UniProtKB/TrEMBL annotation:
<protein>
    <submittedName>
        <fullName>PhnA protein</fullName>
    </submittedName>
</protein>
<feature type="domain" description="PhnA protein N-terminal proteobacterial">
    <location>
        <begin position="5"/>
        <end position="45"/>
    </location>
</feature>
<dbReference type="Pfam" id="PF03831">
    <property type="entry name" value="YjdM"/>
</dbReference>
<dbReference type="InterPro" id="IPR013991">
    <property type="entry name" value="PhnaA_N_proteobac"/>
</dbReference>
<dbReference type="InterPro" id="IPR013988">
    <property type="entry name" value="YjdM_C"/>
</dbReference>
Length: 173
């Protein structure tokens, strides 16, 4: 969404707390973007009580704002936040996004995002169970496959064998 559209929707203020300075869009997958101030984006530590503004933002009619508030309340370890989240009534669209399983992100040992078909390099010698060999450090594994239900595992061919490799032992090339 264009910045002008976000400014028009929000009235030129942060969609969480109502602040008017330093506003920037923040992505809320898969819903879109919300307009937030530096404190609500996490660019600076928020003062005590700042997040209480979410109690008002929870009543937004904009589904993407509802989802963003719902997720932020879940991240706060405060009794009032849990109570506010449980009391939220999400639009059907926001509820569908909230109920959708989070997409798994496969990341290498350095935190780089891995994708289907990437090439990775082993950063450690790995004994391969049941195959009677050790995959050596520095070995390139081309055309990896992502294990769909486990973000800590990928699959690839090493010495002609298809093996499962823990992402903590690879780096993206």
């Amino acid at each position: 969404m264009a910045m002008a559209d976000l400014m028009a929707r929000s009235g030129g203020v942060c969609e969480f707390c109502g602040a008017g300075e330093g506003l920037q869009p923040e992505d809320v997958p898969p819903a879109g973007e919300v307009l937030l101030c530096p404190l609500c984006r996490g660019d600076a530590p928020a003062p005590a009580g700042h997040w209480r503004a979410l109690e008002g933002a929870a009543w937004s009619e904009v589904p993407v704002v509802q989802l963003a508030v719902w997720r932020k309340l879940a991240a706060l370890a405060e009794p009032w936040a849990t109570e506010a989240r449980e009391g939220m009534i999400l639009s059907p669209e926001a509820q569908a996004w909230a109920d959708a399983p989070a997409a798994l992100e496969h990341r290498d040992s350095n935190g780089a995002l891995l994708a289907q078909g990437d090439t990775v390099v082993l950063i450690k010698d790995l004994p391969v169970k049941g195959a009677n060999f050790t995959a050596k450090r520095g070995t390139a594994v081309r055309g990896i496959s992502l294990v769909p239900d486990n973000a800590a595992q990928i699959e690839g061919r090493v010495e002609g064998q298809r093996i499962v490799i823990l992402t903590e032992f690879v780096k993206k090339r």
